[in-house]
Amino acid sequence: MYNSLSQLPQAPYKILEFLAKNNENIWKMIKYNSYDALSYENLSMTEKLSYIWKSGAQEDYSVFLTNIIGDAICEEKCVFKCYDYYINADSLYIATPVFAFDFLYGVTMALVEKDGIPVNRGDLFINEILNTLNGVEIGGIGKLMFNKNQTRYDFARSVIGDSKKFTGVQIYMSTNMGDSGSVISCVD
């Protein structure tokens, strides 16, 4: 039996659940647009998960499991997207999926206070993702990692939204996944 990537569809949501349990700063940066976003109280698990869009209008949501969103971005809002970006078939039994983490935010909220100094909201997002997810098992046969030796697609970069109202960052992390699915025959 060959690899079916059975853990792939659930992986982005599992990643978001793990972040909800293990990282407060990302969720504060999503909810609070202000410079002092990190000084607010921690969000409840229910509140964090309520930011995830499932269907319908997108403008009331900030977290997406897809790379494309139609009507959720405005200039005074943070948007976080987590999705599989690329899958490299290493062998019949192992693949290397690369997960993208996009973090977009309005230009007027580009800075946030951390440890008493102003820092770039995107840089802090990258730091928080790496601190929380680098080395975590998300399903499959490996750990999520930021490692160019695993795939050349593991990197981070600054992105420009529309160059006037919002900007952001992207970070790509990968893992190995392998399993055997059911055999389907096309021959009678």
Summarize the structure.
With 188 residues, this protein is of the alpha+beta class.
Write the layout of secondary structure elements.
Layout: H1 11-22, H2 24-31, H3 45-49, E1 63-64, E2 79-89, E3 95-106, E4 111-114, E5 117-120, H4 121-133, E6 136-137, E7 143-144, E8 156-160, E9 166-174
Parallel strand pairs: 1-2
Antiparallel strand pairs: 2-3, 3-9, 4-5, 6-7, 8-9
Molecular structure report:
There is one protein chain. The chain has a single domain (11-174), classed as 2-Layer Sandwich (STM4215-like). Helices cover 20% and strands 27% of the residues. It is built from 4 helices and 9 strands, in the order H-H-H-E-E-E-E-E-H-E-E-E-E. The chain has helices at residues 11-22, 24-31, 45-49, 121-133, and strands at 63-64, 79-89, 95-106, 111-114, 117-120, 136-137, 143-144, 156-160, 166-174. Strand 2 (79-89) and strand 3 (95-106) form a beta hairpin. The protein is globular and about 50 Å long. It starts with 10 loop residues before the first helix and ends in a 14-residue tail after the last strand.
